[in-house]
Amino acid sequence: MIIFALAGNRNTDGTFNNRGTNANLWSSSQSGSTAWNRNLNSGNSTVNRNTNTKANGFSVRCVKDWKPPGDEAYLVPGGRMNRTPPNMPDTLLVELFRAYYDARRHKRKTEGATAFETDFEREIFTLHREISERTYRISPSVCFIVFSPVKREIFAGAFRDRVVHHLIFNYLNPLCERIFISDSYSCRKGKGTSYGVKRAQYFVRSCSGNYQRECHVLRLDILGYFMSIDKNILFNQIRRLVEKYSSRIPIDRDLFLWLIRQVVFNDPTEGKIVKGSRSDWVGLPKSKSLFFSGKDRGLPIGNLTSQLFANLYLDGFDHFVMGSLGKGDRYGRYVDDILIVSEDKVKLIALISSLDRHLWKNLGLRLHPRKIHLQSYRKGFSFLGRYIMPYRTYLKKSTKGNVVRKISKRANEYRMIGTPTMAQDVRIEACWHSYEGVFLSCNARRVRNRIADVFIEMLEADGVAKGKSFQGGWRTRLSL
User: Nearest-CA neighbor of 374 among 354, 347, 410?
Assistant: First the structure.
């Protein structure tokens, strides 16, 4: 298998041409200072055959029926053939390419992704060598504060490190899915917040006999969850999981664990690049900052692996809770937002202290003392941005405010365009429909229509609606 992109070519003077529109691939035939090459063009369905000076930098040399099993030769930048590194399965190289394509999805316009893509083949082969020789080191992270929907401290890894995060995720996530309970909703395909809300609605209907019996809802939150995760406990959990399913990992188990250790025990506060001002951190609780988490504690919010590790860290807790509940009781969790539904109020009260002791003894965590809520389902309760009541579900006020702010921001960007292109029209319509899914997941018809009216009025204010793309009937397309 050969992996290539329309990478263009490098001229003899070091400049680059045709990136994104042409792919030039050396053949195996050469004559003196020239050689045959094949040319692929994004605007042409044929494959052209040309001769060119060998001093030009083309993507790869085409080799008939090349494949990467065992210790056979494989391609390296510049078209040279090289031997497989000792004890290094070639599947890692293929998976690094796959991880790269995953990491760049929706990120191609970022500075880090653009710099990496300029010579992505060499970057990936460098990662391959560093991992195989165990010399890979994590680059400094960019640290900043986000203010919406809530104030959080973010550590964004360098793009090459995000490729490694996707590599780990692609290997580790299928193993985690084998042990996770079905009612863990975060960072899982086919689940998420909307699925969690539907499950919460089902929990209440099931436990209350379709709203005919009394039942109670217990909501819990963990104090400073991401910043309180013990890295030693986490790594031991990962190690046991990998050892249990080592036959399902196509690369060397010890090498994989070494790579995970580099990510888990990395301290992103060392050598960090701060984006923003120090005043951005004013008002942020110490329990939400890695700068106060202590040695070998805390995971950076912003890394893909942190989301997966956070799910895995509480997996044992999930099974403990499931074993502590009686018949008819229900349990669900989204990251550290915990929901338990039961007919027995006394049992739920006793369960609070039991869960707190289990968290402290086994994971070094505590329940947030000000976020313990026990109430009747009849009064309604908030969960994952919705307010759930018998027979109906509403958007929380804070969620509505966030949606309005984001749509207004998109609309203002759109107004600056003037007459939009078809691609820009599709983008803003996709933005709207992504939020429309939130509206349709609950009883928010009137809110949705009011926001739609404001949205269109903003676009019409500067005459944008006169653009060609709006003549297709935006009011019809935005109406239920």
Answer: 347
